[in-house]
Amino acid sequence: MYKVASASEYLVITGVGISDIKIAKKAWVMPGQSYAVFDVSPVNYTFEVQAMSAEKLPFVLPAVFTIGPRIDDDDSLVKYAKLISPHDKLSKHVKELVQGIIEGETRVLAASMTMEEVFRGTKEFKEEVFQKVQLELNQFGLLIYNANVKQLVDVPGHEYFSYLGQKTQMEAANQARVDVAEARMKGEIGSKLREGKTLQNAAQIDAETRIVSTQRQGDGKKEEIRVKTEVKVFENQREAEVAEANSDLAKKKAKWSREAQVAEVEAAKAVALRDAELQREVEMMNALTMTEKLKAEFLSKASVEYETKVQQANWELYKKQKEAEAALYVKEREADAQKATAEASLFARQQSAEADFYTKKKEAEGLMALAQAQGTYLRTLLEALGGNYNALRDYLMISNGMFVDIARINADAVKGLQPKISIWTGAGGGSDASGEGGGGGAMKEVAGVYRMLPPLFQTVQEQTGMLPPTWMGTLTPGGDSNRKP
Asked: Cα separations (Å) of 361 from 265, 355, 356, 374?
């Protein structure tokens, strides 16, 4: 397909046979290729940029920028086709992109200028913003065709420009008042000045006339005096020159005499000074010789004393070091012994605590095992008694000897009293010492136990008010017991 773009449009083609993209006004679109059309006409963007000056004073900068792709540069068209053309140039995305660049550069530039510089140098400010924004827009292939910065506007709550306008108006009004007053003052002064000058000129002419006549007379006298004065001055100058010549001659004679005397004194002093220097050198050599002699004597003695003191000091130091090491060794051994004692005590306590814990644990396990055994025992008895809790209770009381304990406790309680006592005998009505009666045999003993139960139940009932369990029998009102089969 052969495609042709309109005057303000370009074709961007990509696909088979094209490494990246191809931009053209008209071209063949082959199979395997795709194309898109983008408009390069510029668009107006209106912004109100909020910025802040170097004095931290906020203001609003209304601006209108006419921005579009750079059509005279192929690289810029490629950048625009890749980055911007997929979006509508009137879309919010493109407007936010451009607005972000403009606001950012404007705020940075405004922050480096004072409010007065921004207000007075609007043209320079506009050019700076234009250059900074254009530099950022180059990476998107965009060009600023026109930029119009409107009048700066105050931010609500920060009325700097309105106050500045009021200040200018007040200054203009005050200046107008001053100009009117000054003009009035000049009129009155001019009038008085003209009158005064008329009188001054008339008096000046009279005075000048008198002065001229006096000057003419005085000039003749001054000329005469001047001539006489010059003659006298010339005479004085000649006399002064003669006196000066005599003075110079006397000064030179005195100078020559002083120099001769100074030379003689310097010569005498130089001889004495040289003599003193030689004497000083001799004395210094003698002193050095004596010093070396004394130094040799005292140095040998001092060296011996020094070596002795050093050896003694080293011995004292060695002795103290050994004593300190011995004391330190004792302290370390004591500390080790205390540490070992503490560790042994701690270990014994740990072992004792572990033994107590093991004992308690085993006791608890024994109690748990006993409780489990008793539970099993009770469940077995309860099952054997058909689930009758009363029967289980009576059985446990009998098997644990509770009735015997009750009888003993009651007997102890009625000691010294006259309680009602029931006496019964074994089977056959009597027994001998061996426990054998007339019948004899195992069944006789069982019969004796059964004969003992009714009196026992009756005694328990009389003493405690408790009845025997129903499965063992019941008591009749006459005291007899009916046994259950």
From this structure: 126, 9, 8, 20
Type of residue numbered 457: F
Q: Whats the size of the chain, residue-wise?
A: 485
43 by DSSP, 3-state: which? strand
pLDDT of 341 reads 86
Structure tokens at 443: 């069944």
- pTM score: 0.33
When computed from its CA atoms, the radius of gyration of the chain, rounded to whole angstroms, is 72
The encoded tokens of residue 232 equal: 């006298």
Distances (CA, A) of 429 to 332, 446, 447, 453, 476: 94, 14, 11, 15, 22
pLDDT, position 425: 53
64 phi/psi in degrees, rounded to 5: -125, 120
Residue 428 is classified by DSSP as: G
The pLDDT tens digits for 385-415 are: 888 888 888 888 888 888 788 878 877 776 6
Amino acid at 150: K
Phi, psi (degrees; rounded to nearest 5) at 445: -65, -40
H-run or E-run covering 436: none
| Whether the Cβ atoms of residue 47 and residue 63 lie closer than 8 Å to each other | yes
